[in-house]
Amino acid sequence: DPDSGDNGLLLYSLVSSETNEFDINEHTGQIFTVSVAGKVGTFHLEVQASDSGTRRLTARTNVSVTVDSSSSSNIVMLVLNQKINVVERNSDEVKRVLEDKLEWNVYVVSLYSKEFESKARSSTDETQVNFIAFDEAHQEVPAEDVKRKLREQKSAIELELEQVFSASVSTAIGEAAATPASPELVAAIVLGALLAATFVAFLAYVLLDLKRKRKSGKQDLVRKVEITEGFDNPWAADENGSVKSLEKPEYMN
């Protein structure tokens, strides 16, 4: 926007998105992940830019983000005592420091905070930097070798990062958590459990209904026998050859 003053001050926002895995820096428009752990696929976001003039003008565009799965077993987690939004703004410098002290090329896989809500991103003083190191032959460096080098260069890395963040920095090596089950798998498990419970309940209902009907049938049979015994045989003939009367005996009154 070539305007100046309030008319040139742009603010960015996510108008709509399929999930809550993404957020946006309202001042720079940078889109980042909140958490996409264990999730793969293409996510569609709609981004809006608006100025701050009296008659606010806006523009929108669609952004597609494709998340690929990583099968690497050499991802290393470095935990920093810094807010995730601060680390995000200085991610290039963090990468530079790691490459300088480890003497390997570094690819940052993700930045992660335990807090998912945007409002908590600036209040959580812990950020996990997940990265993979590559040697000169572009081969992944084993995770144990990277961890060993991190321990050796711990003081030097913290000193460099203090200059980047202008604050005291402490680092720790974290253990990568097991990949959580995908939403589809969780949904299938829950649905299977519900179907199983429904089937068991239906089977129990059928068995109880059959038992009730059998008991009811026996009672009806007893009543029919009692009623039949209370009447003379309608097909029996008297001594004159005529059909006996169906009149109820006196003891049935």
UniProtKB/TrEMBL annotation:
Q: Where is this region: Disordered?
A: 234-253
Q: Mind telling me which Gene3D superfamilies this protein's record contains?
A: Cadherins
Q: Does the keyword Transmembrane helix apply?
A: yes
Cellular component (GO) terms are: membrane
Q: Which SUPFAM superfamilies match?
A: Cadherin-like
A Pfam family cross-referenced in the UniProt record is: Cadherin
Tell where it localizes: Membrane
Segments crossing the lipid bilayer: 185-208
State the PROSITE patterns in the record.
Answer: CADHERIN_2
Ranges for domain Cadherin come to 1-77
Out of the domains of life, which is the source? Answer: Eukaryota
Which GO MF terms are attached to this record?
calcium ion binding
What biological process terms from GO does the record include?
homophilic cell adhesion via plasma membrane adhesion molecules
Query: What keywords would UniProt list here?
Result: Calcium, Membrane, Transmembrane, Transmembrane helix
Q: Can the keyword ATP-binding be found in this entry's annotation?
A: no
What CDD domains does the record tag this protein with? Cadherin_repeat
Q: What is this protein called?
A: FAT4 protein
